[in-house]
Amino acid sequence: MAIQQQLIQWASAATLVTAVASSANVWAQDAHSYAKLDEVTTPHLELDLTIDFAEKRLTGTATYDLARHGEADSIHLDTRELRIHKTEVWQDGAWQETAFALGEPHETLGQELTVAIGESSDKLRIHYETAPTASGLQWLTPAQTAGKKHPFMFSQSQPIHARSWIPIQDTPALRLTYNAELRTPKGLLAVMSADNSLSDNRDGSYSFTMPQPIPPYLIAIAAGDLEIKSISDNVAVFAESYIVDEAAWEWADTPAMIEATEEMYGPYRWDRYDLLVLPPSFPYGGMENPRLSFITPTVVSGDRSLINLIAHELAHSWSGNLVTNASWRDLWINEGFTSYVENRIMEALFGERRAQMELALGYQDLLVDMSRLAPEDTVLNIDLGTRHPDDVFSNVPYVKGQLFLVYLENKFGREKFDAFLRQYFDDFAFESISTAEFKDYIASNLLAKYPNVVSMDKINEWIHQPGLPADAPQPESDAFAQVEQQMQRWLKGGKLQTAEWTTHEWLHFINNLPLDISSTNMQRLDKDYDLTASKNAEIAHAWLKLAITKKYEPARERLRNYLLTIGRNKLVSPLYRELAKTPENLKWARDVYQQAKPGYHPLTQSVNEALLYPQN
Ligand code: BES
Ligand code: ZN
Fold first, then answer.
1. If you write DSSP's letter for every residue of 189-243 in order, what string do you get?
2. Which residues have a catalytic role annotated?
3. Looking at residue 82, what is its pLDDT?
4. What is the 8-class DSSP label of residue 594?
5. Radius of gyration for the chain, computed over Cα atoms and rounded to the nearest angstrom
6. Please, are residues 277 and 247 in contact by the beta-carbon 8 Å criterion?
7. Contacts of 611 (CB under 8 A, 6+ apart)
8. Residue nearest to atom 8 of ligand 1 (CA)
9. Whose Cα sits closest to atom 11 in ligand 1?
C-alpha cells in the first residue's frame, strides 16, 4: 500500500517536472537526462554482468554509492528499453527491497527510473537486463566476424546510450569511478574502459577497475575472440587475429604521440593506452573510451595515412576525458579542443605540411556541412532542445571549434596559448565544464592577462553566432594548391604526377573535381589509377560518392560491396544520401540497405533509415 501511494505521488510529480522542463530548463543543466544531481549523485558504480550472446542480453546488477546533496528520498536515473527486476537499498546492515517506477518512454530520452532510497541509505542496487535492441550495444554472430568462430559484442555509449545498458544518471555532468565483474562464454575475452589485463586467460570471468572518475558516456564494454599485441610497455592492440599484426604496425607511432602530447599539455593521467579494433560495423571512426580507445578497422590502410584518428582519440585523454563537456550542448569543448590537439600532435610527429593538409581537408568538410545546416545549428554552443544529439551530429563542434582555437593561437602566439591550454587541463582535470564556465575561465586567464588582443565580444561571436567570423582562419595548403594546378592540366588531357601523392592529396583531388567532369574523364581516371578498386576506405568513399553523382556505372558493384561490408556511419551515410536523390538509385539503395541492415549498428540503421525512408 505504501509503495502504491509512493508510485502515484511520483506519477504526478513526473508530470509536473515535464511541464516545468518544457517551459524553462530550470531543474537541470542537462536537458538530455532525468538525473537530478543537486539531490543525489552516484560517485561509484559496481557492475556485475553476464554477457548472454544467445539472447543478446546483459543481465545482472548495478550497485551505486549514493552521495546526498539535498533532502530527496528518491533518485532519478536514465534507462532505455531496460527490464528492471528489483531495486534494493542497503539499510541496517542488509539489502532491503525498495519501490521503483518507470516513466513513460520518451523517444529521445528513454525512460525515467525513479527509486525510493529513504533518507539515510548510502547504497542502491538494481537488478536488470538489457533488450536485444539496446541502442548502445551491437551483437554480432560468429558469421558476422572475421574469424567466423566466435560472436562479438561492443558498446557505444556516447552520447546518451549508456542508459540502454546500465540504469544510470546519464549526464556528462556526473563523474563516477567503477568496478565490474563480467562473465562471458569460455574462450572469449571481455575488455572495458578500465584496467585491462594483458594475460592470455580466457576462462570467461573478468574483473575491472576504473579508479579515475569519468562521465557515464565513457563506460565501455566489448567481448570477442581477441588477441593482444604490444607496441610498447604501455600501448597494446586488442584485435581479432586477422588484423592484430597489421594494426600494431599501422599504429606504431602511438607511444611517440603520447610523449609529444605530454610535452605540450602535461602528463597522460590514465596509466596504459590500448587500442581495440572493432568489427567493420563499428559506427564511428574511433571512440575515446579511457585506457582503451575503440577504433574502426577502416583506418588500417596499410600506409599509416589515417593515423590522425589515433592522434584524435589519444588527444581526448586530455580534452574530453580529463576536462569534459557538461552537457551535449557543449560538445565543442570535447571535439573542438580535441581536433586542435590532434592536429598539433600530427604537426609534432610529421611536420607542418601534413598537419596543414589535414586542417584544410577538415575546413572543406566544415564548409560543406555549413551549407547544408540550418544557421542555428552552426553555432558552437548549440541549442539542441530535446533533439537527439545523434541527429544533429556534424563537423561544426569539431572544425569550427578547432578554428576558434587556431584563431586564439594566432592572436596570442603559440607560446602563450600553449601555456594557457596546459593550465586549463590542470585546473579542470577530472571535472566537467559548461560553455559558460569556459568563458569565465578564458576571460580571466587569457583575455585579462594579455589585454587588447581579443575581446570578449569576439569570443561570444565565435561561441554563440552562426557561421564563421569574418576574420576566421581559412586554412589552405601549398600541397593542395599544387594538386589543383595538376588537375587543371589533367582536365586538358595532360598526365598527373602522382608518385608523391599521399591519401590526403588524393582526397583533395577527388573532392574538388569539377561537377561537370565528363564520363570519359571518369573512365580515364579509373583506368589509370584504379580508384574503384582502392583499398583505402576514405579514398574509395570519395570516389564512390562521385561515381553516384556522375552515374559512373562501372563502380556499381564496388559500391554495393562497400555498403555491405562497412558500417562506419561517416563513410556510409553520405553514399545513401547521394543515392536517395534519384528514384532509381533510391530503389537500388533500399534493396542494398535491407541486405546490409542485419550487419549495421543501431545508430547506422536509424540514421540511414531516416535518409532512405524519410516519411517514417
Ligand atoms: N567522441 C567521438 C565520437 C562521438 C562523438 C560519438 C559524439 C558520439 C557522439 C570520437 O572521438 C570522434 O570524434 N571520432 C571521429 C574521429 C575523427 C574526427 C578523427 C570519427 O569517428 O570519425
Ligand atoms: Zn572526438
1. EEEESS--------SSEEEEEEEEEE-GGG--EEEES-EEEESSSS-EEEE-HHH
2. 313, 398
3. 99
4. H
5. 25
6. yes
7. 573, 576, 577, 580
8. 158
9. 287
